[in-house]
Structures are given as structure tokens and as C-alpha cells.
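Structure ticket #2291
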Amino acid sequence: METNMIEGISTALITPFRNGQVDEEALRVLVEKQIEAGIDGLIPCGSTGESATLSHIEHRRVVEIVIEATAGRVPVIAGAGSNSTREAIELTIHAREAGASGALLLSPYYNKPTQKGIYAHYAAVAKEASFPVVIYNIPGRTASNISADTVARLARLDNIIGIKEASGDLDQMAHIIAKSPSDFAVVSGDDCLTLPLLALGGKGVISTTANVAPVQMSQLVREFQAGNIEGSRQIHFELLPLFDALFCETNPIPVKAASAALGWCSDEIRLPLTPIGDANLEHLKVVLKDLGIAQ
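Resolution: structure written out below.
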């Protein structure tokens, strides 16, 4: 059976800025680092990519740059979510026309749609865009949860291929896996739950941590896939301090600071997000050094 394009380890890319603009050169460098590290896929313009503060022109340009830089070497699943179904369709069509492999759509935020509305939203995008769609459930940001029953219904529609599950609820994830077709990929949206979800039958992770530790995150997933559960568990425990440090403040504040500390891009971040606190930054640098990621 053909492997689902979101199986394995994909990176939710940060969007580097410089002087208020997207730093296109740094973005291309970040893409290359990810591919060299063996990542299976790239996700531009998600939560980690600060999509909420990108203009429509910037959003489209970031997607296009990542597709160009990737040059077909790994799938690019472009963030295309919106609380407007029409806008989500337009962003998904752009991703398709730009050459992406699929689109990642968070559940509509602020509106707080019912389960009926959530179903209708994704069904409309998948049908009108005629393009592979990955559901993104992150109720901590959207103020609405996509139930396991709704996901299972969506999983049977054409073009809906999987879900990035960031509810933090392993019981819900188990019910999604149990109720969905076997070719529907459930991947973790929380780095710290990657291993537990793999144990339940999940297919991988869309990772923030992989921005700065792509090799280690890849190893965590691949060791499990190879049947080396103890090896995967050991990597999970080794990465726990980094998981904690990268989410000590609102994502992507810490991961952007970490990328800057490694010299990969500026730490510039857009309001209303603000730079990481001094104490958290120093702790983050210590963790990066302890793991051998920074010198």
C-alpha cells in the first residue's frame, strides 16, 4: 500500500524574518538543513510558521519558496487554514497550483462552529480544491475540538488523508484511530506525545522540535518504526528537557529563539508575540548544549 504523505517525521517550519520582511535566503537555508537531516516532509505556514501574522502575499510567497527550495525531494504540505471556508479554499487551491503535495488546515478558529459546521468546512475544501487535505485539531488555539466521530466521518471523504492531532487527549486519538480507515494517517501535533501516539497506531508527527533537532526527532520515529521500542523510548527521554524548553512560552517564541541561538536565522518575531524572556533563553541554550545541538 502506498505510504501516506504525512507518515513519519515532518517539520512545522518557522518563518524567518529580517527587518520586518520574510527572510527568503534564511528560509531556503532552513529547508536545506531539514532535508539534509532526513526529514520526511515540510509544513510551511502553520502555527509554528506564524501564519496568523503573515499577509496573504507573504503566506503565498513562503509556500512558493519552500516548494522551490525542496525541489520535489520531500512532500510539502502547505498550511492553508482559515476561519473563513472560502479563504481556506483559496489558500488550498494556491497550494495545489504552486506545486505542494497537500494542505494542512486547522479547524476554524474564533467562530466556534458546531461539529456539523466543522464537517461541512472540511468537506467543502476537499471537494472544491480537489486536493489532499490534512485536518489540524488544536483546540487550545481554535476554541473548538474536532470529535473522534467527526474525524471518522471526514476520514471517509475523498482527498482527506489524515489529521494532525494536537488536542493532547490520547484517549480521543485512540478513538480516532479505531474508527478511521487504515489508510487515514493520525500524526501527533505535540512532540512530547509522539511516542505514545505511535504506540497507539499513530503514523508519525508534525514537529516543532524538528526545527532545531531534526536528526533526533527522526531517530525517535524511525527507531519505533523499526521495532526498536526501547531505543525510541530512550530518545524520547533524552529529548524531554528540549520539549519542555521549546514550549516554556507560546510557540513559536522559544523555537525561533533556539534557531537564532544556533545562528540559522534572526530571532525576529511578530507582535503580538514578543521575544523570549532572558531566563528562559539562558535555560534553552543550556539544554541545546547539553544535547550536543549547540556548541
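Closing remark: The chain has one domain: 8-226.
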